[in-house]
Design a protein that fits this description.
25% helix; alpha/beta; 6-stranded mixed β-sheet; 29% strand; globular; Rossmann fold; binds glutamine
Length: 234
């Protein structure tokens, strides 16, 4: 069977700090190894998001200025994005993108930027401080450890239905207080990890691809498909 997956690179022209685009390159690399054809396109300002057209969304990080522009435009995509997420669509959201999937982000200058509230977290500001550096976390469900690099002033607090991507072993994570990093909600993976995260942690990329394939091909018993098992890391 020929499997295909379509990726929406949400605001890929504006929200792409630290080469977060690399996450799409990794998804494509692993999809090819699985014999899955992956396509991607940028959906940005003044462009409609059609939840029926895509299987995965990648939403990268950004500086406060870009986020202030995206915060306004993303409100026009709120219903489609929320429907996609509630229908178990796969999402990888990094830093600034992560923040804007929640209720709001308070920028370094105190400006409150509205998110879409598709996830129940919120992000406050730090006083003249940023979390910058390497981070190591451990996912408590799988025991997998993930490595990345963080650079954010926002401090995020998780809400209803959200569980952390991992427990912080080294670094700061969501807020430097509760030892959580990132968030998982349905098939949404959120993180502060740049890196890009999927290049350094391709277990997560495989989870994203398999989740998307299971949702798109419900009758194909995806977990048993030998061809889809990508064992080696890179
Ligand atoms: N790297 C990022 O995406 C930064 C997000 C946001 N501008 C912050 O400083 O918290």
């Amino acid at each position: 069977m020929a499997y295909t997956l379509n990726v929406c690179h949400l605001y890929g022209d504006l929200m792409n700090t630290y080469g977060d685009l690399g996450n799409i390159l990794v998804l494509n690399y692993l999809a090819e190894k699985m014999g899955v054809e992956l396509t991607s396109e940028v959906i940005s300002l003044d462009q409609a998001f059609d939840p029926d057209k895509y299987d995965i969304i990648v939403f990268g990080g950004g500086q406060d200025f870009e986020q202030s522009i995206v915060s306004k435009d993303i409100q026009t995509k709120k219903a489609g994005l929320t429907d996609f997420i509630e229908d178990n669509g796969s999402v990888v959201a990094i830093c600034g993108g992560y923040q804007l999937l929640g209720h709001y982000y308070i920028g370094a200058n105190g400006e409150k930027l509205l998110g879409i509230g598709a996830l129940d977290h919120y992000t406050d500001k730090q006083k003249d401080h940023r979390f910058i550096g390497n981070v190591v976390i451990e996912n408590e469900e799988t025991g997998e450890q993930y490595h990345g690099f963080e650079n954010h002033q926002g401090i995020t607090f998780l809400g209803k239905g959200e569980r952390p991507l991992g427990k912080v072993l080294e670094g700061h994570g969501n807020n430097g207080q509760d030892k959580t990093e990132g968030a998982i909600y349905k098939n949404v993976y959120c993180t502060y990890f740049h890196g890009p995260i999927l290049a350094r942690n391709n277990q997560i990329a495989k989870h994203v691809l398999i989740n998307a394939l299971k949702r798109k091909y419900p009758d194909a018993d995806i977990s048993k498909q030998e061809q889809l098992k990508v064992t080696e890391t890179f």
